């Protein structure tokens, strides 16, 4: 055995590969929503900033889905605790009709519609893609 194989240092060089995926996702969500949506501390309702109003419908929808992810991480979802919501919830919030929501969702491959989760939501493994989509140039 070489002396390199026996080290007095207990640290494994691979240890730095460990990450807390939940913390990384939460940081991403916070960074992308900071100038778009705030969360009312008392009600948990979204408070939209001016930059949110300048987004197209798909990006607004994506931002609201990420807002719901933030609520879930903060353990502040409504009484039913469902991460997802139906098209009516998003249509009311964005002041569009249900068909607009259903039509826009088809182009967003990071969005899932799952009855067990309550409707439309972004699965944990797709958070990065949703954040990247919001950060793309919307021109």
How is this structure best summarized?
By secondary structure, this protein is mainly alpha-helical. It is 42% helix and 9% strand.
Describe this entry's structure for a reader.
With 139 residues, this protein is mostly helical. The chain has one domain (20-136). The chain has helices at residues 21-33, 50-53, 57-73, 87-94, 98-105, 127-135, and strands at 37-39, 46-48, 112-114, 119-121. The model has no long low-confidence stretch (mean pLDDT 88).
Sum up the structure in keywords:
mainly alpha, 4 strands, 139 residues, 6 helices, two-stranded antiparallel sheet, two-stranded antiparallel ribbon
| Beta-strand content bin | 5-15%
| Uncertain runs | none
Q: What is the topology, as strand order, of the major beta sheet?
A: 1-2
Task: Report the total helices.
Answer: 6
Kindly report the average pLDDT value.
88
- The whole-angstrom Rg is 19 Å
Query: Strand tally, please?
Result: 4
Largest sheet: 2 strands, antiparallel
- Total number of domains: 1
**Gap from first CA to last CA:** 61 Å
Which structural class fits the helix and strand makeup? Answer: mainly alpha
Instruction: Describe the global form.
Output: globular
Helix content: 40-55%
Order of helices and strands: HEEHHHHEEH
């Amino acid at each position: 055995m070489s002396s390199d194989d026996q080290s007095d240092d207990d640290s494994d060089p691979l240890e730095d590969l460990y990450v807390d995926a939940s913390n990384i996702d939460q940081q991403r969500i916070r960074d992308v929503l900071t100038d778009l949506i705030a969360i009312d501390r008392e009600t948990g309702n979204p408070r939209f900033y001016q930059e949110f109003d300048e987004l197209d419908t798909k990006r607004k929808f994506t931002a609201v889905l990420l807002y719901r992810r933030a609520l879930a991480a903060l353990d502040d979802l409504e009484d039913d605790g469902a991460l997802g919501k139906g098209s009516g919830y998003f249509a009311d919030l964005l002041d569009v009709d249900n068909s607009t929501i259903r039509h826009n969702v088809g182009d967003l491959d990071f969005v899932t519609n799952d009855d067990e989760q309550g409707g439309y939501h972004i699965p944990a493994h797709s958070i990065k893609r949703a954040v990247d989509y919001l950060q793309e140039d919307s021109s």
